[in-house]
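Standup, Tuesday
Yesterday: got the pipeline producing structure tokens again.
Today: sanity-check two examples.
Blockers: none.

Example 1:
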Amino acid sequence: MQFTVDHTDLAAAVSYAAQSLPARPPVPVLAGLLLDAAEDTLRISGFDYETSTDITVAATVAEPGRALVSGRLLADIAARVRGVVQFELAGPRLILSAGSARFTLPTLPIEEYPQLPQPGPASGTLSGGTFAEAVSQVACAASNDTAVPSLAGISLGHDQDAGTLTLTATDRYRFAVRTISWKHCNLDADHTALAPGKDLLDAAKAAAEAATLDLTLAGTPGASGLFTLRDAHHTTTLRGLEGSLPAYSALFPSEFAHTATVDIAPLKEAVQRVALVATGNTPVRLTFTTDGTLVLEAGTSDEAQAVDNVTTALEGGDLNIAFNPGFLIDGLNALTTEAAEAVDFHFTSSVKPAILRGHGSDDQGLRYALMPVRLTG
């Protein structure tokens, strides 16, 4: 095997493929990236049994061939070298040269590397940027608790009649829902599947620049248990999760007793300031008043205290409610992803979930249901 490739293309490709490298590989060969040079292209692949990444870039191939080398080491080298990078396989060693730099890398036994999973047919197509935005908005609500694996997932639900894909995530304390339009190619009925949240977020970010992204939902014909994200040069597969997320329709009522509109930027800054004294699980208390003021407070009389206020427009009577400040900021950050400048808070009562939506957003915009913290005394 002998080929040359531009250092920019190499660095980007290795960085993409390295996403699937396991932190603690169950077998040594899974720490490697597979290089396959043929027909003026370089294909780089990674796999950890749960996630696979595959990318092709242009290369000048003098002698086709394949090699398996340490992925982390190759990623470090690719990020540092400049100019045209030359690869040559010499027995069990891969020689990499760029300018005055030369590296000799031991290869891993390629015959022990597992077969990469075969992507299923596309369930539908959509913009990579649109999909990445939607995934990032709901991902903040996914759980980090490994005791309930399904809560660490993001649910993707296809609505055949509406031609939409709805993404949802929850950790029981908040529920994020975002709907996007897409063109479904091979689906003739509603279908819902659960993807691993962190892996889906990484894959969606990597595909954000794709003008057209083919998405395969796990459990659809030909897909087996795999999700696939694929564009002209990148392919990622993710093994779907078992189970499903709780039903959420009851969390989003259509009628509310109070509605408040607040500019996001000053509200987020005020929450961050008062949260400085909200140690542990201490909530931030919000008092919405009809005189156009939202007062934020945190702390207790025995400890440090903080108070701040911002302007609000309130419909309905005064309301006192408290939230986990981190969860509240997550929701505000998610709303700014869709360029919302103000947030609408919808309340039924101070003990029921509050619904956060971007001011003026349509039915497909993010809906973020946030459970309040009960106040005592």
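Example 2:
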Amino acid sequence: MRLFLLTALTMIAFAANSILNRLAVESGAAEPGGFAVVRVMAGAVTLAALVALRGGALPLASRRRLVGAGALSLYMFGFSTAYLTLDAGLGALILFGVVQITMFSVSSVTGIRPLPRQALGAAIAFAGLAYILWPAGDLRVDPGGAALMALAGLGWAAYTLAGRTEPDALAATGANFTVALPVTGAAILALGGGWGMSLSGYGLAILSGAVTSGLGYALWYRVLPQLSPSVAATVQLSVPVIAIAGGIVLLGETAGWQLLSGTVVVLGGIALAVTRRRAN
């Protein structure tokens, strides 16, 4: 039960990132590039302070940073710039589709093959997510935006897989954010991500970076060693659904039959993938 609650809390934190980003960008309080850079900066400062308070230090020189910080930079860069030209729903499908394929493929190659019910559950959950998020009307896909979101998916899958072997979740996450900050910032701003930030934009970006990203990602690294790669991949399909539910509660958006029925399919698929069968 404790693992379930911590995993659920992590997914809520991930969804909150999406809501905070939307609140800032859609209201004009922040541009995507500025929001992303401040988000990473706030996460790095918060986590470094927490590690220092407990008498530790960030393992910046560890070889693990090549994968952890590199993957985080790739994710932040791709995610922040892809949405400049890509529909939000389609972007989420590309992101989570690539994450699923990458994590299932890597786990199979490395000898941790998903069980048939886990693969089936993931497929059902993704089908439900596609039903919810598929754009209405004519489908127009910007190749550049799609490629950037695919890179973001590869980055997040690598970041998640790397977290399974980190000995100190908090310090590792802090080090990843710190090393990723200059790389992410330079890449986003070089491609015209934009900086325009108002006071409320800074506040939302700092909240996202310090709490729902920094602490949320540290919590993710804390629970990952207890989850199989296939389960870790599948539970993340709940994030867009939680974000949509948050939009209904916080942003006054409406819930239609498509959302409700699709949510049932997503949750059913996740339940199939994560529930263990009891021996008779």
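Quick observation on example 2: Residues 2-274 form one domain. The chain is about 75% helix and 0% strand.
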